[in-house]
Amino acid sequence: METFSKKEKEKQRQKKRKDKQEKREDRKANAQKGQPLDQMLAYVDENGNISSTPPDPRRKRQINEEDIQLGVAKQEDEAAPDVIRQGVVTFFNASKGYGFIKDLQSQDSIFVHINALIDPINEQDKVSFSITRTPKGPNAIDVRKAV
């Protein structure tokens, strides 16, 4: 004995199967063999826009390879006038082992790791330190409490 809901579900399955078969036959009937190569090509103009017409060879420009910049610009090494700098610890988390020092000369915030400490430090301590450059930015090393 079939219930009403079973009959309805079976009708829906049959309808879905029939629709799928019709779509498949329609695709086969209307399928194109393919387009010629010149209709499939796309060109890029001098402004980087895609177009269907080939670029004008008279508008071609010569570009010097050395002028092309890839990635980040090279940073020039700054001569360190002060090997030892003075600063104030603005933040330090001893449990995580890192913090930041505000350089009194340049007012920059400089990262410091617990491995770079000579003396233990706390927030608001005045310290002296050296700076080393890393790919992520400047880091403080040889950090000592100022007397």
From TrEMBL:
<dbReference type="GO" id="GO:0005829">
    <property type="term" value="C:cytosol"/>
</dbReference>
<protein>
    <submittedName>
        <fullName>Cold shock domain-containing protein</fullName>
    </submittedName>
</protein>
<feature type="region of interest" description="Disordered">
    <location>
        <begin position="1"/>
        <end position="67"/>
    </location>
</feature>
<dbReference type="Pfam" id="PF00313">
    <property type="entry name" value="CSD"/>
</dbReference>
<feature type="compositionally biased region" description="Basic and acidic residues">
    <location>
        <begin position="19"/>
        <end position="29"/>
    </location>
</feature>
<feature type="compositionally biased region" description="Basic and acidic residues">
    <location>
        <begin position="1"/>
        <end position="11"/>
    </location>
</feature>
<dbReference type="InterPro" id="IPR011129">
    <property type="entry name" value="CSD"/>
</dbReference>
<dbReference type="GO" id="GO:0003676">
    <property type="term" value="F:nucleic acid binding"/>
</dbReference>
<dbReference type="InterPro" id="IPR002059">
    <property type="entry name" value="CSP_DNA-bd"/>
</dbReference>
<dbReference type="InterPro" id="IPR012340">
    <property type="entry name" value="NA-bd_OB-fold"/>
</dbReference>
<feature type="domain" description="CSD">
    <location>
        <begin position="84"/>
        <end position="145"/>
    </location>
</feature>
